[in-house]
């Protein structure tokens, strides 16, 4: 689902960094230093095994496995998707894992009829087909390719005037209102980018449009950025981005929210599924969009709305009139998750989980096989180490997910099915998806921020020959927008990771089950974008992405080291100061949002009263000034701030006790560490409430969640923030004490762990 481009665009990732600027050119910490969560003896042994892991990762294996997995299209329910599942299963078994396939039956619509045609002022019918490229051996597998479509669009047959709505965001519709243009009864055409694709038909329907077309403008991912395919790596004239437009009420099977989609599961009727769109929607290429946009008149689009097509961008409506038809086969299809287990020696009841999906919209070399092959290589080498005598203390579970692209189907159904067991056992989930060349990026729960900083400090960048952490950190300093942010990066030992929303298979682990998680990958230096098209294949990837798989090797080293570090630690290396600091920052952002809204609305109302409103719309058309709004009232954020302070105090106590143990000479008794780890595993669960978010109860986590209109993008403390964004101030304030109580509960849980560790470190205390 998530390419590295969208990974960045929706703020699901932040570059990792470490050390001060003056230290950034130094070599990594000496290998005799004690790893977080390890005794001196176990730390030395761990470093030796990790060195063997990193040395054992082979780029040629990544290449061969990608070529095999991308040989044919492998979307959900396709023959080659099942062949890949069986092949992955055989590999895990070959490497010594106890592996099985766990299957679910999910609703997965596939297109039966698709029409986009202009009937006025001239006739034009869109091709809705990506042509094969000479020299690209898999782009011509037309019979097996899923057609260009948006999964979970409702069926519909509509004819109406066309209106261009830029990216189709709520802000874009506010601009249309100022232009005096309504989309009621119209078909809208929006370009891909900025907002997640599923938001575009959702917002269009809320404004009473009756259909939606989404096209790829070359300014966003085509020739504006570089040569298009096959000369370069960018999306060509007829390239189309497929993708799900499932709403974000909940991920997974639309018919079984909150329960696993097993064969005997109780299912909703399709008409009752909340995540299916309200209006029909289809994606098209810029080649098909050009005649439609060229036929529009009305106001000239605002400057920020203009793409790279050789036309004057008009908004409409009309005179272009369009016929849009979508009809799908609404069938249940199997998703086949491959689950592979290496049992732990000391604490087999604790699980470290590593995953990536293997299904794709077509051949999917970048998304997702570039990530899947790294996970397979990690598993192969860990299997080899196991044969050489390495035994992880905790159980390691490798997962190859099916059905991620349509809506996180395989992972969500697995987590929903096994939620109770996972909440007892899961230490962490580490996810990856796409992978490319460049800089390390990660998002996750902030109790793992220090861990991933430590791991990436030990991984060498294949091109610059410094740690990937150092390289990424220098990049962040270079791109910092001001001196204050540069200073913050330089002085901080651990630069924060990003928060996660709803972009890949980590979603159910964090948001539904309360399991600590990371999403990791490399990118930023790719030479193209063929996201969700037939051109995302082995030929394209090896010409324009990670051509020698050096960064695939680096990701496997990163993921494998993180898995080993978590699996072998005496005390699970969670770190809570970062969590406290991060939540405090989120609360400050809420306070700033309120203050900014108060000032903005006060100023605008004054302008309206004095008659000095100046529209930014086309001066040739009379603009309609916005109506006056009530100024947001005072909100009492004290319960949130008190909760943050309580977490900070508990976190400081825990980290202080942890540091005393780490620097002391006495190891903790096995019984003590077992009891402490059992406590620590439950702390992230304390962020959950069974009531969930006010209007999206599937999402249980009260700090991390996607926004209702951000798709992949996170909206921290969403219970409060969503209402504030909608200017529902009373509802927002009502959520503050509820979330504040959750934070107080988390502080108590961390405090209990601090008490127990203090007693163990200082028995006479």
Span from first to last CA?
Answer: 52 Å
Give the number of helices: 23
The coarse silhouette is: globular
Average pLDDT for all residues = 92
- Largest β sheet strand count, sense and barrel closure: 13 strands, mixed
CATH topology of the largest domain: Aminopeptidase
Broad structural category: alpha/beta
The whole-angstrom Rg is 26 Å
Percent of sequence in beta strands? 15-25%
**CATH H-level homologous superfamily name of the largest domain:** Zn peptidases
Q: Which architecture of the largest domain does the CATH hierarchy give at level 2?
A: 3-Layer(aba) Sandwich
Number of domains: 3
Fraction in helix = 25-40%
Number of strands: 15
What is the top-level CATH class of the largest domain? Alpha Beta
Low-confidence spans: pLDDT under 50, at least 5 residues? 3-30, 615-622
Features:
765 residues, alpha/beta, Aminopeptidase, Glucose Oxidase, domain 1, 3 domains, two-stranded parallel sheet
What does this structure look like?
- The chain is of the alpha/beta class.
- The protein has three domains: 4-106 and 332-575, Aminopeptidase; 108-329, Glucose Oxidase, domain 1; 578-761, Transcription Elongation Factor S-II, Chain A (Up-down Bundle).
- The protein has helices at 4-9, 40-56, 59-69, 79-94, 170-178, 199-206, 218-221, 286-294, 365-387, 404-407, 409-417, 419-425, 449-457, 468-479, 483-491, 507-512, 538-544, 550-568, 577-610, 638-663, 670-683, 718-725, 729-761, and strands spanning 14-15, 98-120, 124-125, 150-151, 156-164, 187-191, 211-215, 243-244, 281-284, 321-342, 347-357, 394-401, 426-431, 438-444, 517-524.
- Strand 2 and strand 3 (124-125) form a beta hairpin.
- Helix 3 (59-69) crosses helix 9 (365-387) and helix 21 (670-683) packs antiparallel against helix 23 (729-761).
- The longest helix has 34 residues, at 577-610.
- The model is unreliable at 3-30 and 615-622 (pLDDT under 50).
């Amino acid at each position: 689902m998530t390419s590295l481009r969208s990974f960045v665009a929706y703020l699901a990732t932040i570059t990792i960094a470490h050390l001060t600027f003056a230290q950034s050119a130094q070599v990594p910490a000496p290998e005799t230093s004690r790893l977080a969560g390890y005794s001196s003896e176990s730390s030395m042994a761990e470093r030796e095994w990790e060195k063997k892991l990193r040395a054992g990762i082979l780029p040629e294996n990544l290449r061969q496995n990608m070529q095999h997995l991308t040989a044919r299209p492998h979307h959900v329910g396709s023959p080659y998707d099942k062949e890949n599942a069986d092949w992955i299963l055989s590999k895990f078994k070959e490497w010594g894992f106890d592996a099985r396939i766990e299957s679910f039956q999910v609703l997965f619509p596939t297109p039966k009829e698709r029409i986009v045609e202009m009937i006025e002022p001239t006739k034009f019918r869109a091709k809705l087909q990506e042509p094969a490229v000479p020299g690209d051996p898999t782009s011509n597998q037309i019979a097996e390719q899923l057609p260009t479509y948006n999964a979970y669009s409702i069926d519909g047959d509509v004819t109406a005037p066309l209106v261009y709505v830029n990216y189709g965001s709520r802000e874009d519709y506010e601009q249309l209102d100022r232009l005096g243009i309504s989309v009621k009864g119209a078909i809208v055409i929006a370009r891909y980018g900025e907002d997640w694709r599923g938001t575009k038909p959702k917002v269009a329907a809320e404004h009473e449009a009756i259909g939606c077309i989404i096209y790829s403008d070359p300014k966003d991912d085509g020739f504006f950025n570089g040569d298009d395919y096959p000369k370069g790596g960018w999306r060509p004239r007829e390239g189309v981005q497929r993708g799900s437009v499932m709403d974000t009420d909940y991920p997974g099977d639309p018919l079984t929210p909150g329960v696993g989609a097993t064969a005997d599961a109780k299912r909703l009727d399709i008409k009752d599924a909340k995540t299916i769109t309200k209006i029909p929607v289809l994606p098209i290429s810029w080649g098909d969009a050009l005649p439609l946009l060229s036929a529009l008149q009305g106001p000239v689009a605002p400057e920020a709305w203009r793409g790279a097509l050789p036309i004057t961008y008009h908004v409409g409506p009309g005179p272009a009139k369009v016929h849009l038809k979508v009809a799908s086969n609404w069938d249940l299809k199997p998703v086949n998750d491959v689950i592979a287990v290496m049992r732990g020696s000391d604490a087999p009841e604790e699980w470290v989980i590593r995953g990536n999906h293997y299904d794709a919209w077509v051949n999917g070399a970048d998304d997702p096989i570039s990530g899947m092959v790294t996970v397979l290589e990690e598993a192969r080498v860990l299997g080899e180490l196991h044969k050489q005598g390495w035994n992880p203390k905790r159980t390691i579970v490798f997962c190859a997910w099916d059905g991620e692209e349509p809506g996180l189907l395989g992972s969500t159904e697995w987590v929903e099915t096994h939620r109770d067991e996972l909440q007892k056992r899961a230490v962490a989930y580490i996810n990856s998806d796409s992978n490319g060349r460049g800089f390390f990026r990660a998002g996750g729960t902030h109790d793992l921020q220090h861990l991933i900083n430590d791991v990436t400090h030990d991984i060498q960048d294949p091109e610059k020959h410094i740690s990937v952490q150092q390289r990424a950190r220098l990049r962040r300093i270079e791109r910092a927008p001001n001196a204050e942010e540069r200073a913050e990066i330089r002085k901080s030992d651990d630069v924060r990771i990003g928060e996660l929303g709803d972009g890949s298979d980590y979603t159910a682990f964090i948001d539904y089950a309360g399991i600590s998680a990371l999403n990791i990958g490399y990118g930023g230096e790719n030479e193209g974008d063929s996201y969700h098209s037939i051109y995302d294949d082995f030929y394209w990837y090896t010409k324009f992405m990670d051509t020698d798989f050096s960064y695939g090797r680096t990701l496997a080293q990163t993921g494998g080291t993180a898995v080993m570090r978590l699996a072998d630690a005496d005390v699970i290396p969670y770190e809570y100061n970062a969590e406290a600091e991060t939540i405090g920052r989120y609360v400050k952002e809420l306070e700033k949002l309120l203050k900014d809204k108060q000032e903005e609305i006060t100023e605008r109302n004054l302008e309206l009263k004095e008659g000095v409103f100046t529209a930014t719309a086309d001066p040739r058309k009379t603009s309609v000034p916005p109506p006056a709004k009530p100024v947001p009232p005072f909100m009492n954020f004290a319960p949130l701030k008190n909760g943050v302070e309580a977490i900070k105090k508990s976190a400081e106590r825990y980290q202080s006790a942890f540091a005393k143990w780490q620097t002391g000479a006495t190891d903790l008794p096995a019984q003590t560490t077992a009891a402490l780890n059992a406590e620590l595993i439950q702390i992230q669960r304390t962020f959950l409430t069974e009531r969930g978010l006010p209007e999206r109860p599937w999402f249980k986590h009260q700090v991390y969640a996607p926004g209702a209109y951000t798709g992949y993008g996170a909206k921290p403390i969403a219970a409060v923030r969503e209402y504030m964004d909608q200017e529902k101030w009373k509802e927002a304030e009502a959520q503050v004490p509820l979330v504040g109580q959750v934070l107080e509960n988390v502080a108590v849980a961390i405090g209990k762990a601090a008490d127990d560790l203090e007693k163990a470190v200082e028995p006479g205390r």
